């Protein structure tokens, strides 16, 4: 009787209690495993833009956030926040300061490389984690339709040509330097306050050449107002299939503005892999092609974290070389 009393309480045996305990532990363990698998992402992402509303970086961020939401590619929201100022320093310092935080993202612009080189930012591109590049902006070298310059080779016959750029350090300035070196001539760079002023100066006959992104000058090219001479991409542009690259014409000039996404340094490898997968889906999806690539005349591309990181090294080295030649840095 004592044995029976000691092994049963209210009809529940020690064996059944043990079984119940094991079952509870198993469920708990299962919940813990599921929780670990589903833990990321579980809160809103913050995408910090280094420029104001309406600029190229802002357009990319807001288009990306919209597609992620509409296509239900991520289970949480993405909040786009503009932090302009300091030639990108305000935004990039903030992002880098969120070390190991996998919920903060940002985009790569020219200032991502040039502002640190000028010593105006406490961090450099090495203080960020590259996730992927999902588009690129080639540059079109063009002249007015009535220009005597019919080809890149003709530039050699007209020494003392000028081009326009926004600020002293920019992609057009870099391309002008590369063209001058490749052709053995000199193209003088005239700074303006905005892309609109550069185009107006070009159309008004105040400068001779223009290096423009497709979204800046493609309409004028297609309207016959500007004559394209070359494109700076590795291959011909889809929107200008009859315009050769610099490389095709025998000049070692390849430079595009990669539209890429970064996170702070030290984020978990799982976060990098997660965003590589998501951004690959975005880059290959119809929504991205229609709402961004085609709408803004960008070129489609996808580079994973490793390849994008390599291109960041190359791009920074190019800007550093240009800035030394311009005596902006030592």
From TrEMBL:
Transmembrane segments: none annotated. The lineage of its organism: Bacteria, Pseudomonadati, Pseudomonadota, Alphaproteobacteria, Hyphomicrobiales. CDD domains: PBP2_Bug_TTT (cd07012). It holds the Pfam family TctC. Belongs to the UPF0065 (bug) family. It comes from the Bacteria. This is Tripartite tricarboxylate transporter substrate binding protein.
């Amino acid at each position: 009787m004592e044995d029976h009393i000691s092994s049963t309480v209210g009809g529940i045996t020690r064996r059944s209690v043990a079984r119940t305990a094991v079952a509870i532990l198993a469920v708990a363990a299962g919940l813990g495993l599921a929780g670990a698998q589903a833990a990321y992402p579980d809160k809103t992402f913050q995408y910090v833009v280094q420029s104001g509303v309406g600029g190229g970086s802002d357009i990319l961020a807001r288009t990306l956030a919209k597609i992620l939401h509409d296509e239900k590619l991520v289970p949480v929201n993405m909040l786009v926040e503009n932090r302009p100022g300091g030639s990108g320093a305000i935004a990039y310092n903030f992002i880098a300061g969120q070390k190991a935080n996998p919920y903060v993202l940002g985009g790569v612009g020219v200032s991502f490389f040039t502002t640190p080189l000028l010593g105006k930012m406490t961090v450099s591109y090495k203080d960020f984690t590259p996730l992927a590049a999902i588009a690129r902006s080639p540059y079109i070298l063009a002249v007015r339709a009535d220009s005597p310059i019919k080809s890149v080779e003709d530039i050699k016959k007209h020494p003392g040509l000028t081009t326009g750029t926004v600020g002293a350090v920019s992609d057009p300035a870099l391309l002008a330097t590369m063209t001058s070196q490749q052709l053995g001539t000199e193209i003088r760079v005239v700074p303006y306050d905005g892309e609109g002023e550069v185009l107006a100066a070009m159309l008004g006959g105040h400068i001779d050449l223009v290096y423009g992104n497709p979204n800046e000058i493609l309409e004028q090219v297609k309207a016959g107002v500007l004559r394209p001479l070359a494109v700076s991409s590795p291959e011909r542009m889809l929107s200008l299939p009859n315009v050769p690259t610099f490389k095709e014409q025998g000049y070692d000039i390849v430079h595009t503005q990669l539209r890429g996404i970064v996170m702070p340094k030290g984020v978990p490898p799982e976060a990098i892999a997660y965003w590589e997968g998501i951004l690959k889906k975005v880059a290959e999806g119809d929504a991205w092609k229609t709402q961004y690539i085609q709408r803004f005349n960008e070129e489609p591309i996808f580079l994973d974290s490793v390849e994008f990181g390599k291109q960041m090294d190359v791009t920074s080295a190019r800007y550093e070389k240009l800035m030394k030649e311009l005596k902006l840095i030592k």
